[in-house]
From TrEMBL:
<feature type="active site" description="Proton donor">
    <location>
        <position position="38"/>
    </location>
</feature>
<dbReference type="InterPro" id="IPR003721">
    <property type="entry name" value="Pantoate_ligase"/>
</dbReference>
<dbReference type="GO" id="GO:0004592">
    <property type="term" value="F:pantoate-beta-alanine ligase activity"/>
</dbReference>
<comment type="subunit">
    <text>Homodimer.</text>
</comment>
<keyword id="KW-0963">Cytoplasm</keyword>
<keyword id="KW-0566">Pantothenate biosynthesis</keyword>
<feature type="binding site">
    <location>
        <begin position="148"/>
        <end position="151"/>
    </location>
    <ligand>
        <name>ATP</name>
    </ligand>
</feature>
<keyword id="KW-0067">ATP-binding</keyword>
<dbReference type="InterPro" id="IPR042176">
    <property type="entry name" value="Pantoate_ligase_C"/>
</dbReference>
<dbReference type="Pfam" id="PF02569">
    <property type="entry name" value="Pantoate_ligase"/>
</dbReference>
<feature type="binding site">
    <location>
        <position position="62"/>
    </location>
    <ligand>
        <name>(R)-pantoate</name>
    </ligand>
</feature>
<comment type="function">
    <text>Catalyzes the condensation of pantoate with beta-alanine in an ATP-dependent reaction via a pantoyl-adenylate intermediate.</text>
</comment>
<dbReference type="InterPro" id="IPR014729">
    <property type="entry name" value="Rossmann-like_a/b/a_fold"/>
</dbReference>
<comment type="similarity">
    <text>Belongs to the pantothenate synthetase family.</text>
</comment>
<protein>
    <recommendedName>
        <fullName>Pantothenate synthetase</fullName>
        <ecNumber>6.3.2.1</ecNumber>
    </recommendedName>
</protein>
<feature type="binding site">
    <location>
        <position position="154"/>
    </location>
    <ligand>
        <name>(R)-pantoate</name>
    </ligand>
</feature>
<comment type="pathway">
    <text>Cofactor biosynthesis; (R)-pantothenate biosynthesis; (R)-pantothenate from (R)-pantoate and beta-alanine: step 1/1.</text>
</comment>
Length: 279
C-alpha cells in the first residue's frame, strides 16, 4: 500500500531505513495530474530500484504566470490510486511551506543550457526547476531520478545541475509517451476542449515533416517555416517556436554531425503545448 508523506523529516526517516536495508532508492519528481507518461517513469523506477518515491508538488517557483499556476490541475486522490496500482512505496506530497519555509531565500541557477528557448520565453522558470529539483534530491537522498524526455530542455538542465554540483544521483531520461494519434502526454492536455484535442496532434505531425525535410536537404529555416505554417493552418492560436538545436547545449546548430533535437512550443485553446523529437 502506497504511503503519503508530507514532511521532510518523515521522508528522511523512511529513506534511512531503506538504505540501512541496502535498497537502491529511486525518485520520480512530478507536479501531479498523473498520466501514462508519469506511470511509465514510475514503472521504470520500480524495475531498476528496490524502493521508489514519487513526489507530487506543484512548484510555485517555476511558474512565471500566476494564472497558469492557479489553473494547473490538482488530482492527488486519483494520483495516489494510480501510484498504488503501480506499486510505488511512497508519495511525497509536501505543502509549499514545507519546501519553501519562512525565510527561504536561496535559488539555484544553471547557466548555458537554460538560456535559449524556454529560458528566453519564461524568465525564472528554470531557476525554479533547478531549485526545487536540488531540494527534492536533498530531501529524498535518492540514488536514481527519473524524468521524461518530453521536457527535453528541462532534462538537460537537470543533468547539467547534477554534473556541475557533483550530486550523488543518476538522472535517467525516459522516452516520451504519446497517445495513438501522436500527441505527447501532458497534464495540460486535460484543459483542451474536444476540438482542441482533435487538432493538437498537428504539432507533432508538423515536426515529423520538418525533420524529414531537414534530412532530405531542405534548408533549416525553410523547414521550420513550413512546420510553423502547417501548425497554424490546423487551428493553433500561435507558435512560439519550432527550432532545430544541438541536443545537448540547445544552441543553434553549428555542427550537423552532433546529435540534434527539434523542439516546439505552441498555443491552442489557451493551453501551451511543448514537444520535441530527435533529428
Amino acid at each position: 500500500m502506497t504511503v503519503i508523506l508530507r514532511t521532510v523529516a518523515e521522508l528522511r526517516a523512511v529513506v534511512r531505513g531503506w538504505k540501512a536495508e541496502g535498497h537502491v532508492v529511486g525518485v520520480v519528481p512530478t507536479m501531479g495530474a498523473l498520466h501514462e507518461g508519469h506511470l511509465s517513469l514510475a514503472r521504470r523506477a520500480k524495475a531498476e530500484c528496490g524502493r521508489v518515491i514519487t513526489t507530487i508538488f506543484v512548484n510555485p517557483m517555476q511558474f512565471n504566470n500566476p494564472d497558469d499556476l492557479k489553473k494547473y490541475p490538482r488530482t492527488e486522490e486519483a494520483d495516489a490510486a494510480l501510484l498504488n496500482w503501480v506499486g510505488v512505496e511512497v508519495i511525497f506530497a509536501p505543502a509549499p511551506d514545507e519546501v519553501y519555509p519562512p525565510g527561504f531565500v536561496s535559488k539555484v541557477t544553471v547557466g548555458g543550457v537554460s538560456g535559449p528557448l524556454e529560458g528566453t520565453l519564461r524568465p525564472g522558470h528554470f531557476e525554479g526547476v533547478a531549485t526545487v529539483v536540488a531540494k527534492l534530491f536533498g530531501m529524498s537522498q535518492a540514488d536514481r531520478a527519473y524524468f521524461g524526455q518530453k521536457d527535453w530542455q528541462q532534462l538537460q538542465v537537470v543533468q547539467r545541475l547534477v554534473a556541475d554540483l557533483n550530486m550523488a544521483v543518476t538522472v535517467v531520461g525516459c522516452e516520451t509517451v504519446r497517445d495513438p494519434d501522436g500527441l505527447a502526454m501532458s497534464s495540460r492536455n486535460l484543459r483542451l476542449t474536444a476540438e482542441g484535442r482533435r487538432r493538437a496532434p498537428a504539432l507533432y505531425a508538423a515536426m515529423l515533416a520538418a525533420a524529414r525535410d531537414v534530412r532530405s536537404g531542405v534548408p533549416e529555416a525553410q523547414a521550420m517555416a513550413r512546420a510553423t505554417a502547417a501548425v497554424l493552418a490546423e487551428g493553433f492560436d500561435s507558435v512560439e517556436y519550432i527550432a532545430l538545436r544541438d541536443a545537448e547545449t540547445l544552441e543553434a546548430v553549428t555542427d550537423p554531425d552532433r546529435p540534434l533535437r527539434m523542439l516546439a512550443a505552441a498555443w491552442i485553446d489557451d493551453v501551451r503545448l511543448i514537444d520535441n523529437i530527435a533529428v
